[in-house]
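Q: What would this chain look like folded?
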Amino acid sequence: QVQLVESGGGLVQAGGSLRLSCAASGRTLSISRMGWFRQAPGNEREFVAAISWKGTSTYYTDSVKGRFTISRDNAKNTVYLQMNSLKPEDTAVYYCAADTNVFRPLNAYEYNYWGQGTQVTVSS
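A: My prediction, written as structure tokens:
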């Protein structure tokens, strides 16, 4: 089992920045990749970014490219999402996810484990 705890959400004005953190615990050695998803009210959960747990590969949805950066600190078992130039349409609950299936590619949307989510609100 892998447990995930997100933090760093909050209220920010458009154009501002936030950094989300996701701390993993439990069977962290089994993690092959981690990702961030978001869900706005009335919408389905959507993919935001993913990172391989080893190596340097990253993958982003088009709407956040150039504004968001996913990174990790393996020593701390933590993945980050740096969000810059935030827009009101970025408002959502952001979820961290971890996958232990080594056969799934980086751009797959299926994950084994999910955090509880952290709210990000961007005011105009």
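The chain has a mean pLDDT of 96.
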